[in-house]
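Notebook, student rotation project (T.W.).
Task set for the rotation: take a protein with a known small-molecule partner, predict the structure of the complex, and write up what can be learned from the model alone. Partner molecule chosen: 2-acetamido-2-deoxy-beta-D-glucopyranose. Sequence and SMILES entered below by T.W., checked by me.
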Amino acid sequence: MASRMGLIGCLVIVVALLKCATAHETQIDYQVGDSFGWAVPPNTSYYSTWASTKTFYLGDSFSFNWTGPIGNQNVVPVSKPYYDNCTEGPGIIYALPVTYTPPSTGTYYFICITSDHCERGQKIAITILPAVGSPKSSASSLTVGAFFAVLSTTAVISFLTFV
Ligand SMILES: *[C@@H]1O[C@H](CO)[C@@H](O)[C@H](O)[C@H]1NC(C)=O
Ligand SMILES: *[C@@H]1O[C@H](CO)[C@@H](O)[C@H](O)[C@H]1NC(C)=O
Ligand SMILES: *[C@@H]1O[C@H](CO)[C@@H](O)[C@H](O)[C@H]1NC(C)=O
Ligand SMILES: [Cu+2]
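Predicted structure of the complex:
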């Protein structure tokens, strides 16, 4: 009976570990600015506040959408100096709607280059962290593997005890 309880305990731990290992593997498509979307925001801290309330992982994507009446919204990926001074850098100007998937970790900067939109706060910095589960996955698998080994041993012992 005791080993049976042990077996159940082990199973619970293994299930918990598997859940842990897969926790952040879901890739999220964020609508930048939530329901407001991508346009001149109500204040200059709107998008930095939006980004600061979330943690972004590699594999997540960012949809810049705007369905409101004022057109001419665009998205330009820029480097930090251009983001800081709201100047169009060398690079692509994306028309909306567009979904951008950062190809690696680091901080990405986006601005809208229509008139004074960027100065009025239509700019965002997004920091991408490593996907939890990618660099750590081998360690997690090892841990899970070890638990399965313990589990099998326990199962064999329970079986032998039972017999
Ligand atoms: C900016 O606007 C948002 C949305 O209206 C509001 O929730 C937030 O409190 C405002 N922030 C500041 C600093 O005014
Ligand atoms: C903005 O920064 C970029 C990169 O440093 C620079 O080339 C450009 O001249 C700056 N523009 C203004 C208006 O300060
Ligand atoms: C935002 O744009 C993306 C990419 O075009 C689209 O898949 C998504 O449905 C849009 N979301 C909304 C709320 O319009
Ligand atoms: Cu704009």
